[in-house]
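Slide 14.
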Amino acid sequence: MFKNRFDEGASPFEFANGSVNDRALPVDYAGIAESVHALQRQVDRLLFLNQCTLLFGSPLSLSDVVTQLMDALWQRHQLAFAGLVLGESELGPYFYYDLRGVLDARRYLYKQCPLPLWGELARALVRRLDPEEPDYLLISHIDQAKRPTPEEFPWMPRTGSLMIIPLRKEAVAVGALILGSSRPENFLDIELRMELVEFAIVAAHAIISAEAQEEIQARTGQLAGLQLFTRSLAATTSTNRLIGTIVSGVAELMDASSTLMAFHLDLTNAKLRELLLAAPGAYSNQQLVGVAANDDASILLAKLHRILQWTIDAAQSLFLDPSQPLESPENLYYNESGRAMLAPIIVGENSLGALYVEAAPTRSGYDEEDMVVLRTAINTIAILLKQIS
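Slide 15: predicted structure.
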């Protein structure tokens, strides 16, 4: 016989809200709020990273891409300081491309960042052998760790916390983000670290893309510049102005702040020697005579005399950093890039002189592709000098 459910002792109110066996459990409002907050944070992070991803493949210059990336990072996170360094190769040198929260930041911008092998930057840039190991360096208490040393980052506060995240291209370091907080243990939040690492990946792709576009534009400009350079030499009707035209033309072609063309007087014939000594601004020093653009030939000759002589004698090209003490030329021979280049001037089969160019402050430096352009210009110069001889 049908049994009324009310006979079981349950009230109509209870049945209106479900049976006794289906009675709802207490609602965990705190847990729901925490889940919603976590979801909002994830969505917010994705929107932020998507905004940064839009810079990938943009027509902006490298400096503009770096500025926009650092603007986005600085506005989003309450950091005490933030810096970005980029290198010409994995082993450096590395240069400051952006600094935030640093007094007198202009003092360091586009200057070389020290890279001691025992330093924190070097440790952060080393490739991780274990793929599960976090690809960043974390110091939660700068004052307690007494790291990094003031010699490595003289602008950095000595308290708070530090996180250095490498920027990589196919696992090879091309730069790093140097991030700091005034609060110790600021970067222990795993969600924060995850976002910063993902931002570094996006930033690396955007920067590499901008560098590639600038490289293409630079090579296109250099090809056009070479054409104009050879045309200007061919159009020079006065041999008295030839040397000055060569030096100024090379300075413009290579975007150089300093250019010096030097010859060994004992290796040149009387006609070329007379032409060199008569050139405006010419200066002789211990059998070397030089003509400079945008600088004093006497200063450059005195500074570079030994390495100029080696380049002429060895007939070998070199990269160097003029801001550093000049090392043995044999050591410099293995450099693949630098802020300055030296190349021999070979006329026929004889090395008669050398051409020195130093990059303008707005350039990161020179590499092998630039050396090819410089040698091509020197080949044109050599043809003209051979005709003079």
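Speaker note: Residues 129 and 137 are 15 Å apart (CA to CA).
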